[in-house]
Write a structure and sequence with these properties.
This protein is mostly helical. The longest helix has 43 residues.
Length: 332
């Protein structure tokens, strides 16, 4: 990522003296709205992680009940869902892609690492310093002493990583400069591919959250859900969808369409988001909806969700005259 950024910068310097077409003002507004929202979300995550650290320390000092810490973890994880699926930005550049979550955790790596830490304390690493590790400590059948052996250390590292991500978003010489060079060298299409590609990539992450536990009606896989220990998996599907809608609405894309006078597509997207959220089953637990006849409600939700994906990944790029290829949405 750093090599790519340096290459873009060098190319920009070599071509600065050449005549370049003016950047579309509407595209400039889109870029600033995109950066503004991403920075705001980084602020929110960093703030929630600091609050989680403070609340956990109060719990360990006997000043707060466990339920208060669990609620703060829920808030911190909800803030993290706004960053899930980001690709080619500060999360990758700062090496933080797996600093907040290891998922899917098919072999319960988190649980095994934490069990070893409780029995043989040593340096924390990998899955033992993620939000999933905090979930394990707060929701497994552990004593306060056991929880507090690790909680302060795990949260301290999470706070540091949250602040690193925050600084990476605010550093104008990194991602912001990359976007500027894209606009100079490639014009509208390159920059739109970058921003819409992230939106599509985040949709793919939510789809994976649903598809892995959904599997088939005869063989659902509840333990493949994102937060099965706390029974909050469906809640975080909801917060993910809400943050995706926020990125579309407040991240500049909707305003860009308005400036292009594409009211038809705006209506289609607004209705697709509303329909998807309207058909998301109630409650916090995904496991509940994987049982028996409840499974049909998830399938009905998936129909609306797939229609939303078609609007975001096909209809929207096509209307703006761009194509989101494999590289725009592959991987996690």
């Amino acid at each position: 990522m750093k090599f790519r950024l340096l290459s873009l910068t060098a190319l920009g310097l070599l071509t600065a003296c050449q005549s370049q077409p003016p950047v579309d003002p509407a595209l400039g507004k889109l870029t600033q709205a995109h950066l503004g929202l991403m920075r705001q979300q980084a602020d929110e995550l960093a703030g929630e992680l600091r609050q989680l650290d403070e609340t956990s320390r109060a719990y360990c000092a006997g000043e707060q009940p466990l339920a208060t810490v669990q609620q703060q973890w829920r808030d911190a994880f909800a803030a993290w869902t706004a960053h899930q699926g980001q690709s080619g930005g500060p999360l990758d550049a700062a090496g933080l892609s797996y600093a907040f979550q290891l998922w899917p955790d098919k072999k319960d790596t988190t649980g095994r690492q934490l069990a070893r830490q409780l029995n043989q304390p040593g340096p924390l690493k990998g899955a033992s310093i993620t939000l999933g590790a905090v979930e394990h400590l707060l929701y497994e059948d552990l004593s306060q002493t056991q929880r507090c052996t690790l909680l302060p250390r795990v949260n301290e590292q999470l706070v540091q990583n949250g602040e690193r991500l925050q600084m990476a978003w605010y550093n104008p010489s990194d991602y912001e400069q990359q976007l500027e060079q894209m606009a100079i060298q490639g014009g509208d299409s390159v920059l739109l591919v970058q921003i819409l590609g992230q939106l599509a990539h985040r949709f793919d992450r939510i789809e994976k959250k649903l598809d892995l536990p959904l599997n088939t009606v005869d063989h659902p896989r509840p333990l493949f859900a994102e937060a099965w220990r706390s029974e909050q998996s469906l809640h975080f599907v909801r917060t993910s969808l809400q943050s995706l809608e926020r990125e579309y609405q407040d991240g500049g894309i909707r305003a860009y369409l308005q400036q292009k006078h594409d009211t038809t597509l705006i209506t289609e997207l607004d209705e697709a988001f509303a329909d998807t959220l309207n058909h998301l089953p109630e409650g916090d637990s995904l496991t509940h909806w994987l049982r028996g006849d409840n499974y049909a409600a998830l399938l009905r939700f998936k129909l609306s969700f797939d229609r939303l994906g078609s609007k975001l990944k096909l209809r929207l790029p096509d209307a703006l005259g761009i194509s989101l290829g494999f590289n725009a949405t592959d991987g996690d």
